[in-house]
């Protein structure tokens, strides 16, 4: 019985050999086509040279957006906290909170406009 199993294994090796050769040829063909495509894309990006510049510009724009949004949120949060503190100390329930939150919003907008470079910090 061991001999039949051994013959079957060698017989399957003989049958898989042409399949492996065909597969190897297909893989080689695919590798060759992929390398040609990579080379053509690489030459296009080398000619234009804007891909690294675009990613740096996107990162810079995203950083600026996060900075501006955090300044606006911080202004509103600080104004709301001061208003809550004033309401708590003076027992003027919602009025201090509302007034200082609006003042915080205005201060946040002014900071955003200054940071964006639309208005100068000097008067």
UniProtKB/TrEMBL annotation:
Pfam families: ATPase_gene1
Residue ranges, annotated region (Disordered): 1-56
Keywords per UniProt: Membrane, Transmembrane, Transmembrane helix
InterPro entries membership: ATPase_put
Record bears the keyword Lipid metabolism: no
Keyword Transmembrane helix: yes
Domain of life of the native organism: Bacteria
Membrane-traversing stretches: 68-86, 92-113
Segments of skewed composition (Polar residues): 1-15
Biased composition (Basic and acidic residues): 29-45
Protein name as annotated: ATP synthase F0 subunit A
Source organism per UniProt: Bradyrhizobium macuxiense
